[in-house]
Amino acid sequence: MKIVSLVGARPQFIKEALVGAAVREHAAWRHVLVHSGQHYDADMSDVFFQELDIPKPDYHLGIGSGSHARMTAAALTGVEDILLGETPDALLVYGDTNTTLAGALAAAKLHIPVIHVEAGIRMLPRTMPEEINRVVTDRLSVLMCCCSELGRRNLAAEGLTDGVHVTGDVMYDLFLRMRPRFTPEKTCAGNGLKPESFVLATLHRDYNVDTPASLRGMLEGLAAVQEVHALPILLPLHPRTRKRIQDFGLAPLLAGLRICEPLGYLETMSLTCASRFIISDSGGLQKEAYYAGKRCVVMMPDTGWRELTDCGWNVLCAPQRESILAAADRVMAAMPCPQAVYGDGAAAKKIIDSVLGALHSTPETPAP
Ligand code: UD1
Q: Which residues contact 171 (CB under 8 A, 6 or more apart)?
């Protein structure tokens, strides 16, 4: 059996690292790796392949950046060519990026079964690009692997019940596997920080950083947390965010913060483990913070990881100074860490078993 696995952006490299390794470990199928090139800078892409021992992709589409339509269209035609040449038994896609959507669409039109890892996540606003990508990808998938029961319930509410499996989160598997390689103290020292005495912050979500008022509000909020709690804030800057700060003339607001380039997985996790808490609008980091036993201020109007906000471990906030300060106050309080929310660290094996089970029972569909 042959499966094409499609990645393109940072969170997908992280998930592929684990799934690809498990496929090799269990000799489950021939795994053809395709990189769309949605993320292309060395610190947005290469560093993850090196640190996480991901093999060189079999294909690289080099789609680069652009409008949603241009990026999706470039990935769509590129993936279609590969699928026509490789004639795989299935296409594996991860998460919710434009790469995910393009792959699912290309495969579904060729009657190639789509497997969606991290299926069933739903959040508002429905107009958010990632939400559109999630809903359409799930609709086109024959196998949906969910991180928790919430994913299964979300899919059932849309009438999707066949091919739905709760496998747990591969990002948790990866966290456990890589933990021996985290170096919290050394990484802190390298960044001039003291363990438990700083905040790690990230921001890149389009609706946050593409609007001057939101971007200003978030930067003012970070500065206020730093001042009120006397906790230095380290802010690795995503290229989208860096560009918007320049476009909107907000660079003076960075003055008190510690700014650096985007970080790889090991450095990010080492700093997460050493931090006092996290402030982020990243879907992945709010979950990884929990794996590290840290709480997270989530600068989003909603989150797909509601298990963590419903119990109060993570706290949502608006992109405004006062809202960020109030959320930071809440996560600084002590609270018992919720247990085993996203599986038991064996998600990759469960995904492989689900795929093997599903594909053997999927009737052959003739190519158009
Ligand atoms: C994408 C995903 C988002 C995910 C995030 C992880 C979509 C719709 N969004 O958002 O779900 O959380 O990846 O980072 O797919 N850029 C560079 N170098 C790069 C990559 C990007 O300079 O290597 C710049 C470009 O100016 C680009 C911008 O960053 O226009 C945004 O990149 P893009 O891939 O469109 O979206 P992300 O914000 O990274």
A: 14, 15, 18, 284, 287, 288, 291, 342
Residue closest via CA to ligand 1's atom 2 equals 97
Q: Is the CB of 83 under 6 A from ligand 1?
A: no
Distance CA 141, CA 164 (A): 10
Q: How far is the CA of 10 from the centre of ligand 1 (A)?
A: 9
Residue pLDDT, tens place only, 254-307: 999 999 999 999 999 999 999 999 999 999 999 999 999 999 999 999 999 999
Count the Cβ atoms, other than its own, within 10 Å of residue 76: 21
**Radius of gyration in angstroms for the set of CA atoms belonging to the chain, rounded to a whole number:** 20
Element containing residue 24 per DSSP (H, E): helix 10-25
Q: Which residues are CB-contacts of 217 (< 8 A; sequence separation ≥ 6)?
A: 318, 319, 320, 321, 324
Could you give the 3-state DSSP secondary structure of residue 320? Answer: coil
> pLDDT tens digits for 316-357?
999 999 999 999 999 999 999 999 999 999 999 999 999 999
**Strand pairing category for 164-166 and 2-7:** unpaired
Whether this prediction's pTM lies above 0.90 is answered by yes
Report residue 46 CA to chain centroid gap: 16
Q: Which helix H or strand E contains 116, and what residues bound it?
A: strand 114-117
103 lines ligand 1 (CB under 6 A): no
Summarize the confidence of residues 211-228 as an average pLDDT: 98
Distance 230 CA to ligand 1 centre (A): 32
Q: Give me the DSSP letters along 170-207.
A: HHHHHHHHHGGG--HHHHHHHTT--TTS-EEEE---HH
